[in-house]
Amino acid sequence: MSINLEEAVETAGMILFHNFDIRAVTLGVNLKDLVHPDHERLAQACRRRLAQWGERLVSEATEVSESLGLPIVNKRLSITPAAWLLEPCADEGAPVALAHALDHAARQAGVDFIGGFGALVQKGATAADRRLMESLPQALGETQRVCGFLNLASTAAGLNLDATARLGELLLEMARGSENGVACAKFVAFANAPEDNPFMAGAFHGAGEPDCVLNIGISGPGVVRSVVEKHPDCDLARLSEVIRRTVFKITRAGELVGRELARRLGVEFGVVDISLAPTTAVGDSVGRILEAMGLERVGTPGTTAALALLIDAVKRGGAMASGHVGGLSGTFIPVSEDLAMIQAVQDGALSLEKLEAMTAVCSVGLDMFALPGDTPAATLAAIIADELAIGMANHKTTGVRVIPAPGLKAGHEVDFGGLLGRAPVMDYSRFDCRRFIGRGGRLPAPISALRN
């Protein structure tokens, strides 16, 4: 793969003026061969391996970034789902001990996050799955860089309502046990979780992956917004073409970085995740792209249609540029991490219900939004179930990162700092859903899943 001079100059302009960067390089590491019934031995073996790989990742990523002149913002690790590693460890303290070892490895290596502290429980939970779930408040509350996940639903298996109901209770414990509820920001509930996702909090190293694999998450909301603003009057078909061509260029640059870094590390190159990932930096907003299309505010009528156009154009452009597109490859719409989304909530243009409607055409889901700290556990579980049902029924990935902000009410604001941003506390329907959630069991898979 080669980049010509014209592309190099264009990429330099994207970096200098429109916040283009490689948002995340995530090295997935298989740890299954370290499984041992002595959880302390397991934890220390995981810590040593991850620290070694993490140090190499940070060093090589820094050199690649400097040599190619393309910023690499986050260096991350993902591991085999932790519940699998804990199967022979009957000690109730084993999950927390493992979480502390992972956090130690991340700090030692200088990686910003390590993902994979989670379980796949869409059809049921093993004893190890349940031990890990119950440990989430302590494990994520006592660590800084460990991220957790639960896959609660899939198109093939349906939705595990028992685990979802328990998660509603655990989220309240997680929120109360951490400053501003930030432990909840390091956790995501999934339907159809991808095994090669480089973005946090949901990254993990799946069963179908090699021993080590490098996945790349690119990001260019500012680049896409700039080209949309240059075409204020064209029709939507032409606008889609403009976006496709732009994402094509972004993806090529991302794959170039990924392949070079994988070569230096001596690992397999996995995928380019072409998701547009916003930050709170001025000009780095997905919401501003939608507004540049002609919406006064995100959340107004037309928002879902505009997002559908955007995400389709992103996928088309990325798929043309690379044969290794994977992960989430959608458009992130996190409330706390996008200035336009924050403003839309504050102005009353964006409600929780409209945000959910937008996720019907978006591969990522309800992301980084805050609710009042006294939100009932059943309501949290029901919000999660609603969103995961969208993913389950539509054969797509959806996720939820919800933060019940301790002590805060609708209209207040919670500041998580740094990459996680700040979130206006949103309101929710106060009508009761406890009887529905209390039924438990498993929501059956859609009939469309029977495709063999």
Topology of this protein?
Layout: H1 5-18, E1 21-29, H2 39-68, E2 72-79, H3 82-85, H4 94-109, E3 113-120, H5 127-141, E4 146-154, E5 158-160, H6 161-176, H7 182-185, E6 187-191, E7 212-219, H8 221-229, H9 236-265, E8 268-273, H10 286-292, H11 303-321, H12 339-346, H13 352-359, E9 365-372, H14 377-393, E10 398-405, E11 413-415, E12 422-424, H15 434-438, E13 442-443
Parallel strand pairs: 1-2, 2-3, 3-4, 4-6, 7-8, 9-10
Antiparallel strand pairs: 1-7, 4-5, 5-13, 6-10, 11-12
Helix pairs in contact: 2-4, 2-9, 4-5, 5-6, 6-14, 8-9, 8-10, 9-11, 11-13
Number of strands: 13
> Structural class, from secondary structure content?
alpha/beta
Q: How large is the share of residues in beta strands?
A: 15-25%
Envelope shape = globular
Main sheet specs: 11 strands, mixed
Low-confidence spans: pLDDT under 50, at least 5 residues?
Answer: none
CATH C-level of the domain at 29-191: Alpha Beta
The percentage helix is 40-55%
Mean pLDDT value: 90
